[in-house]
């Protein structure tokens, strides 16, 4: 083989692979993403959706042409075609999602779509930039004078350096995705097998087979429909989780308090607790040393009257609330 | 020691506050006593906030005390000025 032939082959090879990114890991993510799109197409055909084939098609195009919006669009389309397999929301095709859990096709579809999105974003972050910059603020707003470096005042792209990658990154993420899928399916199993019981402690009970198949009880517990039960359990779980997270982070921030902030909190609390006594002491001290702040009897009486007025007001409100409650009970229950 | 007692009191008040919310639901709301439950919710909220406040103060006092313990001893400005003059 002559040198000219090898040069020509090299040029052809460069032309064919010109759409691939320079970073080896980015190429790995890109090719894995395209392979996953093909598997996703096969899985979608198996699941019975013909229109949903546009998802892998768009995903592949997005990967090749580095379209940043495509992961979000494919995810929205995926959810839409899962809810409405015929692509028409008005056909009201019964969805089998509420009764399904730990189904192989569900696991496969969710895993594939999650992995393809992960591959897309990682490929973008290693070759272009994963997420676009925030737009520059309009003139007149704070920060509008800030200018970005780069040609024509355009922002420089932030590319993840190859040195920032680590060995077996791809495998670890796939294992994490598998774990997330398992936990999600477990949560879905719980949502579809628990019912809210307002009279019980702790407000939830395991659904009996008779209720679930709706053969014994035509009306579900608490007079709620199954989707309402699921929605309430899901909302309660979100609220409980949110409260727990808030409290954990609040306590963690407290345990990491810097010295000055801690001193400020302690001083603030001490001032709030003692300011009245300190104010009185200072007033008497100034009066005793012949200062100008003499405690006049009128001001003392006025202060006491103010307190008395507040006390009377609070007692009146309490009496009114009590009388209102008694009247309400009489009118409702006749007791 | 006072800090530890305050923190313990904070946790106890937090628990009491949450228990009050439970009482509101299982004792009052399930028996359709809405007005009584409203007052009890207010009481529970005050107890809960009191517990949070005690916890915050205890943690802040502990952080301030630990920072003071780790701080280097203060330098006497009069003494250092005398030393500087004698060196000159």
Question: What does this protein structure show overall?
Answer:
The complex is a heterodimer of chains A (335) and B (88). Chain A has helices at residues 3-16, 24-47, 54-65, 70-83, 104-127, 169-193, 209-213, 226-255, 259-288, 297-333; strands at residues 194-196, 204-206. By secondary structure, chain A is mainly α. In chain A, strands 1-2 form a two-stranded antiparallel sheet. The longest helix of chain A has 37 residues, at 297-333. Chain B has 88 residues and is mainly α. Chain B has one domain (2-87). Helices cover 85% and strands 0% of the residues of chain B. Chain B has helices at 2-28, 34-70, 77-87. In chain B, helix 1 runs antiparallel to helix 2. Chain B starts with a helix and ends with a helix.
Key traits:
heterodimer; A: mainly alpha; 10 helices; B: mainly alpha; 3 helices
Give the structure's gist in a few sentences.
The complex is a heterodimer of chains A (335) and B (88). Chain A is mainly α and 335 residues long. Chain A has ten helices and two strands; from the N terminus they run H-H-H-H-H-H-E-E-H-H-H-H.
Q: How many domains would you count in the coordinates of chain B?
A: 1
Judged by helices, strands and strand pairing, the structural class of chain A is: mainly alpha
What's the story with the biggest beta sheet of chain B? none
Alpha-beta content class of chain B: mainly alpha
Taken in chain order, the helices and strands of chain B follow as HHH
Write down the domain tally of chain A.
4
Q: Helix count of chain A, per DSSP?
A: 10
List unreliable stretches of 5+ residues of chain A: none
Oligomer: heterodimer
The Cα radius of gyration of chain A reads 34 Å
Principal-axes geometry of chain B comes out as rod-shaped
Order of helices and strands of chain A: HHHHHHEEHHHH
Q: Helices, strands, pairings?
A:
The complex is a heterodimer of chains A (335) and B (88).
Chain A: H1 3-16, H2 24-47, H3 54-65, H4 70-83, H5 104-127, H6 169-193, E1 194-196, E2 204-206, H7 209-213, H8 226-255, H9 259-288, H10 297-333
Antiparallel strand pairs in A: 1-2
Helix pairs in contact in A: 2-3, 2-5, 3-4, 4-5, 5-6
Chain B: H1 2-28, H2 34-70, H3 77-87
Helix pairs in contact in B: 1-2
